[in-house]
Amino acid sequence: MIDAKKLEAELMNLPEGWIVLLETSAENALEAGLAAIKILTDKNYYFIVISASRPCSNLLSLYEKNSIDSGKITVIDCVCKSQNLNVKDSSNVLHLESVSALNDISISIGKIIGKIKGNKFICIDSVTTMLIHNKPDVFARFIHSVLTKMRINEISGLLLSLESETNKEVRAEIAQLCDKIIRI
Amino acid sequence: MIKKIEKSLETAIKKHKTGTVIMMELPAEAYFEANSATVKLLTGKGFEGVYVSFHRPFKSISSMLKQEGVNINKLIFVDVASALGGEIQEKTPRCVHISPEIDIDELVRAIYTSLDRLEGKKFVFVDSLTTMALYKPLSETMRFSEFLMLTVRKDKEKVLLVFNVAKDLAQKKFIQDIALHADEVVNVVK
Predict the structure, then answer these.
(1) pLDDT for position A35
(2) What pLDDT does A155 receive?
(3) In whole angstroms, what is the distance from residue A106 CA to residue B130 CA?
(4) Which residues of A touch B130 (CB under 8 A)?
């Protein structure tokens, strides 16, 4: 069980445009991720989720079960096509080839943020999973590039990471780019 | 943490008569907090500085420093982050933009000419050499750091050069090579 009150307090007090690294255990990762999305969509943020861990159908089902308005979410699904599933994009799901398609992910983010008005949050779920499929220095460059794009467009960010599962050096490279680290 | 930074900076400034090179090893969890504290301390002590930003584009870093109470009118920013990210950079008098290729000679020239625009006591602040090393060969990162160290040490005015590195990255060989040539290595604990 996560400390939901602590998470809410931390997220509610974030200045606009801040980028947060949310570190949690493997057991709490799902609960923490869903709680964070619920808190922020309730605060009227539009969420763009880069999903490296779960296919879109599973995510959207989880959002529904947790009363998260999927009308406020776009999922960039990096899982389905990599499993050779025959999938189609929809109004709130964009399928990419794989978690390693970092250029495509970056381009997709750029296209999506241009179409959405209002306050936005980009969530990377999860840093740890993406590192399994990408070389550390390449991934660190990708994170730096995406975070720069977000800052220029004044978009807030949430990077989910499994504490103690992420390589220490890559974790340091990413943590120093973030404005706050929350441990739940 | 802030007291430690203040004490270390004061010691370094008093100890060295000519240009001083400081490497600060910072906790990754409080990296920006430590950076803003250092810059605030230096500008508060009458220094004007060149902030070489690899981490955040100008708009973001200037706004965040301002929120932390830093007088950004005492700073000129070199916006490497936007160049690295391939983003269009806004034109502003307090910011020097460089080309996306991140040519080391151009970067050093940008820093050097920015220093000439400053008055009184000066510093150069590099938020992260390791982020530079993600994009450039190690030889270029080393060349950059050597150029900067040479620049501050041969300058007749006393210029302070501050390199920052996350603690967990401080054991990288190239960082240790640079630390060997620094006048002070400050280990900051949160």
Answers:
(1) 92
(2) 92
(3) 22
(4) 173, 176
Angle at A182 between CA A154 and CA A121, to 5 degrees: 25
Residues A70, A130: Cα–Cα separation, whole Å: 23
Q: Which residue in chain A has the smallest CA separation from B35? A: A176
Cβ of A173 within 8 Å of Cβ of B130? The answer is: yes
Phi and psi angles of residue B186, each rounded to the nearest 5 degrees, phi first:
-110, 120
Can you tell me the distance from the alpha carbon of B159 to that of B119, in angstroms, rounded to the nearest whole number? 11
Residue in chain B closest to A136 (alpha carbons) equals B134
What is the predicted pLDDT for the residue at B35? 93
CB count in 10 Å sphere of residue A133: 15
The amino acid sitting at A84 is: N
Element (H, E) at A122: strand A120-125
User: Helices in chain B by DSSP H: which ranges?
Assistant: 2-15, 31-44, 58-67, 80-84, 104-116, 129-135, 138-154, 173-181
pLDDT of residue A184: 87
Q: What pTM was computed for the model?
A: 0.91
Measured CA angle at A82 (ends A81, A85), to 5 deg: 40
Question: Do the Cβ atoms of A152 and B87 come within 8 Å?
Answer: yes
Nearest to B134 among A17, A141, A168 (CB): A141
Of B28, B64, B87, the CB nearest to A176: B28
pLDDT, tens only, A37-53 = 998 888 888 999 999 99
Q: How far is CA A17 from CA A149, A154, A156, A178, B72, in A?
A: 11, 5, 4, 11, 19
Using a 10 angstrom Cβ sphere, with 0-12 exposed, 13-18 middle and 19 or more buried, the burial of residue B88 is: exposed
- Shortest CB distance from A169 goes to which of B31, B60, B168? B168
Residue B59: its chain A contacts at CB < 8 A? Answer: 151-152
